[in-house]
Specification:
The complex is a heterodimer of chains A (about 325) and B (about 240). Chain A has about 325 residues and is of the alpha/beta class. Chain A is built from 13 helices and 13 strands. In chain A, helix 4 (about 105-115) crosses helix 5. Chain B has helices at about 45-55, 75-80, 95-105, 110-125, 140-150, 170-185, 200, 220-230, 235-244; strands spanning about 10-15, 20-30, 35-40, 60-65, 70, 80-85, 160-165, 190-195, 205-210, 215-220. In chain B, strand 7, helix 6 (about 170-185) and strand 8 form a beta-alpha-beta unit. The chains are: A alpha/beta (about 325), B alpha/beta (about 240).
Chain lengths: ~325, ~240
């Protein structure tokens, strides 16, 4: 029992949260979380993925004690994030989607400001700031104003500010949105180093390549968990055979294939179209004939393994066709 | 067809801020109806270049034409001919969806009759009819994104500039957005788009990759991948930027 307790750093059960949203003159109830259960293990890199309004930000804010759930239980490091906030405040680092850096202060001054906020002991301040500058590769820019940093560097500085009190648990809400692929890679290398040092990381991301770097991922939708497991386990939940058609006319090919009722789904991926089907031998022949008849060219039709994004998109489409996604369930506008 | 003027043409376009050269002798052409992906690292100069092309910022050197108009001489006219949308949608949160469209129709000097007609067309085209009487701030991100795109299309611009239009948007919304973009391009609108999602680069007819103010690679995604012998544009991008 005790070892199991120590193993779990975040435990949420049956969490529900409803917002009241204004629609014209009327008010409407929107459920951000519905009986949401999740456990994150100590030392894990845990990814939250899901469409806008899935409840990811609401969940993170509840964990940080910034929002109260309507019902359900939550424990972070074994404590209630609201009533026992003082016990865990020093152990949690939270980086919201729009982290407030002081644009007119330099990199170093921003870090110093956060040492004040978190009351880092005076004798440790300089060493800790130096370590974070080195760690985030921001050392050469320590005298630059935050406002003059590139997007990727701003996110690294925000992360460094979040780490100033050496938290055991990091909660990062889409930390790399708007960041270029090279800087994103560097940011995730830093997260990997933190995990090796024993920090538990809960991170939401719209990038599937980032989700694939997590130990476990929860796919969330409309306030619930739709799928949970390692990235491979989730990819393995793809319920059909997957075929990729590489073509220079992906839009036309996708439009043509959407008229074929034997296909379970047709998705565009830039230079190819992904199709979910059963009985590939027969169906691929039908696809070939159909495309040939219409005069669409393709370079190859390959059967492939579904990856995380294929499965994510497939499951989401099924749901959004079955249930119209709830309008207004947008946390940026309501959870403030 | 061979003699059709490009929708966008830049020649040695340059912008300095003090000693810093944000855009350094950049040259390219974009055909009418083309979807052109303008990629680069953060801070590479993409937004500065877009601001010049939109007639919002004077170049320090070089010249560019958008819809045949010079950015040095006709910047005001250019702004009437182009649409612009960025990830920071310039929507009025406290207005209703249809009021936002009315506001932008006014900003583009559409007549009342045209404004009403275009508003209804946009509401239909971008599947916003059911939310026309809703407060903009109560919309989910994906819907706001469609409204922002619709607002930028009210005056039927010939060229549409999209500066990271899909930042933070989930994979399904991004796909839907790109299908819309392709539909606009197929009808002749030229699309000039920046993105950090490298899978989206694969949707573009051609892309350029910018680093430290210069274009370091340009071409069709499939040809660039073949040239560098790499499977994805993300690999090409990382290879080029890290190698720089």
């Amino acid at each position: 029992m005790t070892s199991q307790m120590a193993d779990v750093i975040i435990r949420a059960s049956a969490l529900s949260k409803t917002y009241s949203v204004k629609e014209g003159r009327a008010r409407k109830q929107v459920q951000a979380l519905r009986s949401f259960d999740l456990e994150v293990k100590t030392g894990e890199m845990f990814g939250l993925i899901g469409p806008d309004g899935a409840g990811k930000t609401t969940f993170m804010r509840i964990l940080c004690g910034l929002l109260l759930p309507d019902s359900g239980q939550v424990a972070v490091l074994g404590f209630d994030p609201v009533t026992q906030q003082h016990k865990i405040k020093q152990d949690i680092g939270y980086m919201p989607q729009r982290f407030s850096l002081y644009q007119d202060l330099t990199v170093e001054e921003n870090l110093n400001f956060f040492t004040d906020i978190f009351q880092v002991p005076r004798q440790e301040r300089s060493a800790r700031t130096q370590r974070l500058l080195e760690f985030s590769r921001l050392g050469p820019f320590s005298k630059r104003r935050a406002g003059a940093l590139s997007g990727g560097m701003k996110q690294k500085l925000a992360l460094s500010c979040t780490l100033i009190h050496t938290p055991k648990l990091l909660i990062l809400d889409e930390p790399t949105t708007g960041v270029d692929p090279v800087s994103r890679g560097e940011f995730w290398d830093i997260l990997g180093e933190l995990q090796q040092q024993g920090v538990t990381i809960l991170v939401s991301t719209p990038y599937m390549d980032e989700a694939a770097r997590c130990d476990r991922v929860a796919l969330t939708y409309a306030g619930q968990i739709l799928a949970l497991g390692t990235p491979d386990q989730i990819a393995g939940q793809f319920p059909h055979q997957l075929v990729r058609i590489f073509t220079r006319q992906p839009y036309d090919v996708a439009a043509a294939l959407r008229q074929l009722e034997i296909l379970h789904s047709v998705e565009l991926y830039g230079d190819h179209v992904t199709v979910a089907l059963d009985d590939p031998v027969t169906v691929v022949e039908i696809i070939r004939k159909n495309l040939d008849k219409r005069g669409y060219s393709y370079t190859s039709i390959d059967s492939g393994q579904a990856d995380l994004e294929d499965t994510f998109v497939y499951l989401m489409r099924q749901l959004s066709q079955a249930t119209q996604p709830e309008l207004g369930n947008d946390l940026d506008s309501h959870a403030k | 067809m061979p003699n059709e003027a490009p929708a966008i043409k830049a020649e040695n376009l340059t912008r300095r801020f003090g000693k810093f050269i944000a855009v350094d002798h950049v040259s390219f052409e974009v055909r009418r109806g083309e979807v052109f992906g303008f990629l680069g690292a953060n801070g590479a100069g993409k937004t500065t270049a877009i601001r010049m092309l939109c007639g919002l910022l004077h170049p320090s050197g070089g010249e560019a034409w958008v819809s045949g108009l010079s950015i040095n001489q006709d910047s005001r006219k250019i702004r009437q001919r182009i649409g612009y949308m960025s990830q920071k949608f310039s929507l009025y949160d406290d207005l209703l969806v249809e009021e936002n469209l009315d506001f932008f129709a006014g900003a583009y000097n559409l007549s009342v009759a045209d404004a009403n007609k275009r508003r209804d067309e946009i509401l239909k085209r971008f599947s916003l009819e059911e939310v026309r009487r809703r407060l903009t701030k109560s919309l989910p991100l994906g819907w706001k994104q469609r409204l922002a795109l619709g607002s930028a299309m009210l005056h039927q611009p010939e060229v549409l500039f999209l500066d990271e239009p899909t930042g933070g948007v989930d994979p399904i919304m991004r796909r839907n957005f790109w299908e819309t973009i392709h539909g606009l391009a197929a009808q002749g609108t030229t699309i000039f788009v920046t993105t950090h999602y490298m899978d989206e680069a694969e949707y573009c007819h051609r892309i350029s990759i910018m680093n430290y103010g210069k274009i370091i690679a340009m071409g069709e995604p499939s040809k660039l991948k073949a040239e560098f012998g790499l499977p994805t544009i993300q690999d090409v991008f990382v290879h080029l930027i890290k190698g720089a």
